[in-house]
């Protein structure tokens, strides 16, 4: 897919309002915490294989947005292929890195690996829970983070 | 869950050790009444941590997996948090995926661990019925007595844990051993995962070595680590991460300088002998760089040929430790070893060429391995190599010669009893072996075969589940079930009748092919479901127990909660039977037999620990596990670093042993080590195995995996672990799955001349084409059902890894796999 093709797909996806509705209902049952709604990026900026670093729910919580080449659990975008995760490994808190070729998030400290297409489930490793997923929605072509599924490493509560 | 309650400043706290693998990581347990939580202010919680802020890397974070809620005997609810201990030298605050989830294994009435056994059960036609302890012990003891009196002690069969950690410990092992070996005196005994009562490392013992020679610190000091048939990232996790990896990455260089001074040192190298490219290989490469890791991806069952070829190169290059051999070894065994095992009458080219053809490893790699293990360093210093092995070797082609091959390589190079060296098994479970001697001799009696022949009239299975873990397991299960069912008929026919009549009817059933099956465990396992008498045991955390880890580190694992219902520690169950049998024989006016069942009146866990201790002298003669002079009080004081056994008594004070054989003493008649020689460099496949190999296409290698423990007895009840493996996985090469139209997650049938089993396909190039790797001992599918009854005739150890079978696709189950990941599990970068 070249850049021009992507733009077509991207625009088509942005005008579909259903994506955000579906994920909102899912999130409500997960966590009652009041999460901020944060604009992460414009859907148009997220070209294939994009890996975008941001923070959520606050500046001390690094997160990573990934555009996969397949639909991901709770994904948004035209093909539900845009997902985001806390970047802190749920083992000892080292920052995980996304390897595009591997399609996985890998922790450099003790090699726990996580599958971003499957809700951050651990592929192999020593973490005792999945990587917390940052819940996304699309609002007028803007990708917004609005919640977290799972407790972020190093926190007693996700909102501190 | 989006938060975890914090322990208040007055929470009860305990230091303990993980119940699972051999490494025995230290943990801290916090317990406090529900509703009295601490707060996130640093002065408001026991950890003194400011939980209002984002914690840095490697902080004492409380993960939801670290927490559970329990209920004590009085109905009071408590929060329990279990976190890795930063002050324990074994793991330094690291948890494995198994240890991180310890809290979820605790009994909780409103969680999925709530199906623990609560009371003794007696079999009946419809379903097992609850009985009280007195009735259970009386009936069981009367049957045992009747069997001994009529058929002799060997008609009592037993299969029991012999390990440390959860479900074991010195206390429970001593009670079990005393009962069966001193009191009943049967030789029809077997250890939890195999059909006989035997060491898995007879060859090491014959050479004069203990199974666990080194300290974990030696892995940080070695020049080269040799890992044969083991996958330490997954199954000895924090030994690998906290000790081996710092060596490979160069992080332990300062320790090497401090220990070895001017002796040249650099970051360590690792040789991994494994038919699979495991996560251990990838992680080691990531830490050390590919050029410092040598992965020898051998063909099945060819370890002996490979190890002996490496030894031959070392001998040929004169890199062997002639000083050690002359001073510390029986010289004549060296001559025999060279001539037979190393085939010195053949040219080295011939031997290495042949070894290369057998193993599939190029001669260059064989020479390189020899160089890494033994080529002297600059200045003439000997290489310090640490040799480790586990089930790939132990359960390999021929147990005795497999173990002999690595032991000989270690002795040839003098790699034992010095910092940075060792010849040790890596271990599966923890250890705590303390029992009176087994008198059955070698090769030990095969209990499965005795059951098959109807010679076992009463079979007592404790803390293990042969339905999942023995060879030809479906047939064994069916034999156990059929024979136990005959006893159930006798029990049903005599409900409400006097005890004498009931026992007489049971004996009639035993005469006609019946077998009184006793199951002792914490859960209703497949074995217990078919048992006539079920005895509920306490688990880790519900009693005080002691064990040693892979470097012989002895610690106390304290009781911090009540066992459910009527469950009691294994030793207490055994004590009830011992006391009852004493009385029954006394009533029978049989003083000889009644005196065999004396001294079961232990009052608490420590009484058993101290009772077992009497055999230790505190001198060089003690076995590896010797704990002369050690008390619970001392262990409490020593905390999670404990003391390394064997202890020597110096001025009556127990002093630990960091590494074995440092004094040059070996456990042989002469005190010198011995080479264990074999008739030729490689024995080849046994006929039965060879036939199966010729008949079936795929090699079904098998073993354990990172995120589950043994038969999943806990982990099948905990969603995080269960969801990873709803069925046993079978790793297959993409070329093979393409040909068989198998997709990731498909359910396949694996079948051969022994049996058939279902598994979930997992496509990966970690295995070679034609090779597979299947998870061992899963409740939904046991590899054991494909394993033939062939055992090493020298040791009665099965060739569990020697399975060949065909595979066909059955179906796909999209619902089952929709949340599962099928990405490769051996990627580190």
Overview of the structural elements:
The complex is a heterodimer of chains A (160) and B (829). Chain A is of the alpha+beta class and 160 residues long. Chain A has a single domain (3-149), classed as Rieske Iron-sulfur Protein, CATH 2.102.10.10. Chain A is 14% helix and 31% strand. Chain A has helices at 3-14, 18-28; strands spanning 38-42, 51-55, 62-67, 82-86, 97-99, 104-106, 113-115, 121-124, 133-139, 142-149. Chain A is globular and about 40 Å long. The mean pLDDT of chain B is 97. With 829 residues, chain B is an alpha/beta fold. In chain B, strand 24 and strand 25 (756-763) form a beta hairpin. Chain B has 4 domains: 12-105, Immunoglobulin-like (Sandwich), CATH 2.60.40.4210; 121-194 and 443-609, Rossmann fold; 213-425, Dimethylsulfoxide Reductase, domain 2 (3-Layer(aba) Sandwich); 687-817, Barwin-like endoglucanases (Beta Barrel). Chain B is globular and about 80 Å long. In chain B, the strands form 6 sheets. In chain B, strands 6-5-16-15-14-7-8 form a 7-stranded mixed beta sheet, sandwiched between helices. In chain B, strands 22-26-23-25-24-27 form a 6-stranded mixed β-barrel. The longest helix of chain B is centred in the middle third of the chain and has 21 residues, at 473-493. Chains A and B meet through strand 8 of A and helix 9 of B.
Arithmetic mean pLDDT of chain A:
85
CATH topology of chain A: Rieske Iron-sulfur Protein
Low-confidence stretches of chain B: none
CATH arch. level architecture of chain A: 3-layer Sandwich
Shape of chain A: globular
Give the strand line-up of the largest sheet of chain B. 6-5-16-15-14-7-8
In one word, what is the shape of chain B?
globular
- Record field, number of beta strands of chain A: 10
| Cα separation of the termini of chain B | 31 Å
Class by alpha and beta content of chain A: alpha+beta
Using the 3D structure, state the CATH architecture of the largest domain in chain B: 3-Layer(aba) Sandwich
Q: What oligomeric assembly is this protein in? A: heterodimer
> How many domains would you count in the coordinates of chain B?
4
What name does the CATH topology of the largest domain in chain B carry? Rossmann fold
Sheet having the most strands of chain B? 7 strands, mixed
């Amino acid at each position: 897919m070249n850049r021009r093709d992507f733009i077509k797909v991207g625009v088509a996806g942005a005008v579909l309002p259903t994506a955000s509705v579906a994920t909102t209902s899912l999130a409500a049952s997960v966590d009652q915490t009041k999460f901020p709604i944060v604009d992460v990026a414009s859907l148009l900026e997220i070209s294939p294989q994009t890996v975008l670093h941001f923070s959520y729910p606050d500046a001390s919580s690094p997160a990573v947005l990934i555009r996969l080449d397949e639909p991901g659990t709770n994904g948004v975008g035209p093909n539900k292929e845009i997902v985001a995760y806390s970047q802190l490994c749920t083992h000892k808190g080292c920052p995980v890195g996304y390897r595009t070729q591997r399609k996985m998030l890998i922790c450099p400290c003790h090699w726990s690996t996580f599958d971003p297409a499957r809700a951050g489930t651990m592929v192999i490793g020593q973490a005792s829970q999945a990587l917390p997923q940052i819940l996304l929605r699309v609002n007028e072509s803007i990708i917004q983070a609005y919640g977290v599924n799972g407790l972020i490493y190093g926190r007693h509560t996700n909102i501190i | 869950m989006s938060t975890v309650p914090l322990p208040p400043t007055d929470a009860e706290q305990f230091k303990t050790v993980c119940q699972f693998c051999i490494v025995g990581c230290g943990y801290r347990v916090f317990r406090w009444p529900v509703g009295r939580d601490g707060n996130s202010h640093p002065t408001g919680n026991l950890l003194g941590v400011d939980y209002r802020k984002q914690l840095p890397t490697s902080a004492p974070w409380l993960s939801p997996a670290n927490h559970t809620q329990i209920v004590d005997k009085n109905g009071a609810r408590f929060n329990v948090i279990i976190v890795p201990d930063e002050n324990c030298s074994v793991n330094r605050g690291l948890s494995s995926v198994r240890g991180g989830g310890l809290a979820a294994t605790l009994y909780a009435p409103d969680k999925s661990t709530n199906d623990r056994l609560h009371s003794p059960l007696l079999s009946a036609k419809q379903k097992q019925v609850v009985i009280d302890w007195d009735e259970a012990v009386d009936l069981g003891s009367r049957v045992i007595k009747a069997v001994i009196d009529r058929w002799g002690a060997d008609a009592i069969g037993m299969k029991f844990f012999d390990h440390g950690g959860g479900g074991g410990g010195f206390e429970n092992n001593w009670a079990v051993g005393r009962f069966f070996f001193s009191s009943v005196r049967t030789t029809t005994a077997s250890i939890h995962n195999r059909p006989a009562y035997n060491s898995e490392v007879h060859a090491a013992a014959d050479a004069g070595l203990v199974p666990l020679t080194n300290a974990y610190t030696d892995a940080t000091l070695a020049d080269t680590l040799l890992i044969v048939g083991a996958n330490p990232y997954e199954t000895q996790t924090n030994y690998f991460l906290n000790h081996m990896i710092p060596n490979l990455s160069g992080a332990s260089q300062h320790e090497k300088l401090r220990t070895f001074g001017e002796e040249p040192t650099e970051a360590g190298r690792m040789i991994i002998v494994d038919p699979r490219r495991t996560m251990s290989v990838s992680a080691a490469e990531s830490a050390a760089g590919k050029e410092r890791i040598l992965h020898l991806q051998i063909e099945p069952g060819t370890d002996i040929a490979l190890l002996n070829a490496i030894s031959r190169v070392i001998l040929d290059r004169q890199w062997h430790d002639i000083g050690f051999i002359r001073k510390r070894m029986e010289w004549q065994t060296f001559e025999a070893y060279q001539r037979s095992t190393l085939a010195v009458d053949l040219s080295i080219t011939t031997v290495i060429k042949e070894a290369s053809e057998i193993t599939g490893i190029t001669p260059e790699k064989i020479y390189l391995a020899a160089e890494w293990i033994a080529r002297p360093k600059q200045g003439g210093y000997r290489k310090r190599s640490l040799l480790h092995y586990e089930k790939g070797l132990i359960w390999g082609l021929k147990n005795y010669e497999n173990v002999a091959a690595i032991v000989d390589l270690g002795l040839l190079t003098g790699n034992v009893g010095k910092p940075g060296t060792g010849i040790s098994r890596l271990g599966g479970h923890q250890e705590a072996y303390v029992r009176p001697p087994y008198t059955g001799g070698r090769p030990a009696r095969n209990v499965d075969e005795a059951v098959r022949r109807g010679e076992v009239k009463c079979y007592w299975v404790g803390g293990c589940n042969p339905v999942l873990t023995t060879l030809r397991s479906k047939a064994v299960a069916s034999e156990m079930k059929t024979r136990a069912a005959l006893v159930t008929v006798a029990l049903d026919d005599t409900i409400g009748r006097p005890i004498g009549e009931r026992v007489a009817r049971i004996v009639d059933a035993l005469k006609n092919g019946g077998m009184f099956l006793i199951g002792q465990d914490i859960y209703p396992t497949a074995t217990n479901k078919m048992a006539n008498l079920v005895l509920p045991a306490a688990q880790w955390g519900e009693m005080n127990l002691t064990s040693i880890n892979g470097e012989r580190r002895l610690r106390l694992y304290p009781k911090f909660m009540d066992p459910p219902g009527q469950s009691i520690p294994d030793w207490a169950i055994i004590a009830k039977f011992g006391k009852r049998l004493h009385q029954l024989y006394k009533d029978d006016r049989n003083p000889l037999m009644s005196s065999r069942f004396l001294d079961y009146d232990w009052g608490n866990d420590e009484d058993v620990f101290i009772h077992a201790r009497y055999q230790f002298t505190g001198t060089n003669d003690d076995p590896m596990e010797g704990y002369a002079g050690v008390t619970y009080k001392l262990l409490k004081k020593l905390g999670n670093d404990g003391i390394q056994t064997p202890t020597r008594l110096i001025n009556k004070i127990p002093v630990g042993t960091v590494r074995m054989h440092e004094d040059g003493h070996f456990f042989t008649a002469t005190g010198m080590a011995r080479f264990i020689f074999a008739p030729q460099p490689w024995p080849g496949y046994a006929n039965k195995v060879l036939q199966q190999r010729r008949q079936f296409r795929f090699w079904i290698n098998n073993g354990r995996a990172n995120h589950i423990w043994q038969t999943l007895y806990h982990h099948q009840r905990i969603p995080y672990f269960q969801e990873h493996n709803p069925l046993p996985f079978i790793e297959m090469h993409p070329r093979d799955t393409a040909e068989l139209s198998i997709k990731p997650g498909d359910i396949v049938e694996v079948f051969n001349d022994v049996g058939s089993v279902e598994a979930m396909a997992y496509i990966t190039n970690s295995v070679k084409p034609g090779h597979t790797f299947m998870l061992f001992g899963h409740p939904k599918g046991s590899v054991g059902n494909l394993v033939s009854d062939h055992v090493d005739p020298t040791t009665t150890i099965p060739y569990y890894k020697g399975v060949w079978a065909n595979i066909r696709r059955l179906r796909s189950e999209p619902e089952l796999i929709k949340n599962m990941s099928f990405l490769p599990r051996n990627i580190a970068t």
